[in-house]
Sequence to fold (81 residues):
Amino acid sequence: MDVAFLYYSSPLSLCVDKIDIRTLPGLEEAVALVAVEADWVYAPPQAVSHFGSGGGYIHTMPYASRVFGLPRAHALRHTTR
Fold:
């Protein structure tokens, strides 16, 4: 079982004992979502889901969410599972 985790902007392939860390597909896209300026990291724009009359759709707001997670770019696997 893989667990997607860790935002790290560079490819990473590491195996230590029974722990394997590898880069997920789409690293470039994940990195492009995160803005870094003068050593500050900014969240990607907030996506808001609208459901109700007229059907569901997702609208991208012109600002970032106040609480955000960075995109997952790597996977962790314990090799005995």
